[in-house]
């Protein structure tokens, strides 16, 4: 039952925290600028985004299970898995690239929306959260559809969401201090590993749908050493989507995705010299996010070392 608990907890935690931080930034800005009367509009947009994301998940489930044949289900599942991996990969790199400017971008859009009227404020909040919500829903659906039980993935995902919301609230209130750059780097790397398994299994689905060849051409078969029904076989399948009987195409897809994506994600980028940072007015800066909380963005584009803190971290 809990074979897919951990990877879905990771999905809920990572993606949920991104969305929760977006909401925290919007709320903190309205509080700071004494526009609390606009808060119900933001919450309305957030609620609508959550509702649309849940409805999207229900629609996906209904559409897949409603297909007539096994091959149609495998074809749809494989296609959605590959699309989901593409989207989550784009979002991981997008967050790494834009995290340092996220607060400025969001508050700038919120200020423009306020000038346009109430509907624009709700729409802006909706779009900011819905982007995260829809992508998260698709990725979770793709990760969960390989599980034998629906309960384990769902419990893991919901646990991740709850932890993300609690953590975001604690950061907003200044109750905890963590290095967000380190958090998003490590969780991003783990998500890439999870995504590689989903990507590989998506090709397996397409093979079972007879869209791609090679279903019976195995790269290896270690089912005798790693029985699928053993506790360690179940654990490997749940965390890494590992199959004791892996086709050549699956192995190629897994390697072709994991190696370059993980390399580029963890590859250190050039950092600005102290002179360049000083010329920019100090690229390593601290900006207020919540009540006593702050986001400190360093000049490192690769890890985007953001730390939510009320005091210097020494990083």
From TrEMBL:
**How is this protein positioned relative to the membrane?**
Multi-pass membrane protein
InterPro entries the record matches: FTR1/Fip1/EfeU
In its UniProt entry, what is this protein called?
FTR1 family protein
Q: Which organism is it from?
A: Cryptosporangium minutisporangium
So which residues are the signal peptide here? none
| Region entry Disordered, spans | 274-315
Source organism's superkingdom?
Bacteria
What's one Pfam family here?
FTR1
What the record says about family reads: Belongs to the oxidase-dependent Fe transporter (OFeT) (TC 9.A.10.1) family.
Keyword annotations: Membrane, Transmembrane, Transmembrane helix
- Which residues lie in Polar residues bias regions? 300-315
For this protein, the parts annotated as crossing the membrane are 6-29, 41-63, 75-93, 113-131, 151-171, 183-203, 248-267
List locations, semicolon-separated: Membrane
